[in-house]
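Support request from a user on the community tier.

User writes: "When I paste my structure tokens into the form, the page sometimes reloads and wipes my input. The last time it worked, I copied everything first. Here is what I submitted, just in case something in the input itself triggers the reload:"
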């Protein structure tokens, strides 16, 4: 039996979250970095949910309250990923619904996210969840 549930991320989930970031998103991040970031999550402003299947973390979503002067409160998805062996099992949908519930609890009017141009499968998933691709943007970065 495959027991799937969503819960708040815990510090002991760092290794599995880091593995998912590397294998599913292609981000070169370490367990230490994920642990450092997870240890200081501000639960008034952010939520990290994990999907657990038979005791193993198989997906996560990181979201934050998004407040700007020029629009009502939204929730911003900062990252979402499901382990490759668990894709197409409804886990991404469960994670997004957890964020949606939190967004409603804090009075947000909606959810926003950015997705890389090449992540076409993710785009299909977001559209299936009711998201519209509102506009194209160019992202600018400056590193120090």
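"...and here is what came back when it finally went through:"
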């Amino acid at each position: 039996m495959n027991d799937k549930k969503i819960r708040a991320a815990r510090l002991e989930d760092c290794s599995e979250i880091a593995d998912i970031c590397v294998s599913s998103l292609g981000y070169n991040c370490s367990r230490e970095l994920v642990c450092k970031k997870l240890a200081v999550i501000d639960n008034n402003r952010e939520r990290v949910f994990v999907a657990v299947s038979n005791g193993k973390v198989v997906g996560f979503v990181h979201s934050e309250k998004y407040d700007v002067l020029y629009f009502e409160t939204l929730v911003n998805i900062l990252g979402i990923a499901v382990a490759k062996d668990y894709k197409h099992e409804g886990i991404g949908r469960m994670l997004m619904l957890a964020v949606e519930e939190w967004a409603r609890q804090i009075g947000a009017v909606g959810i926003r996210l950015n997705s890389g141009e090449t992540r076409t499968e993710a785009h299909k998933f977001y559209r299936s969840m009711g998201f519209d691709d509102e506009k194209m943007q160019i992202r600018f970065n400056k590193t120090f």
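Agent notes: The reload is a front-end session timeout and is unrelated to the input. The first strand starts at residue 4 and ends at 8. The chain has one domain: 4-128. Escalated to web team.
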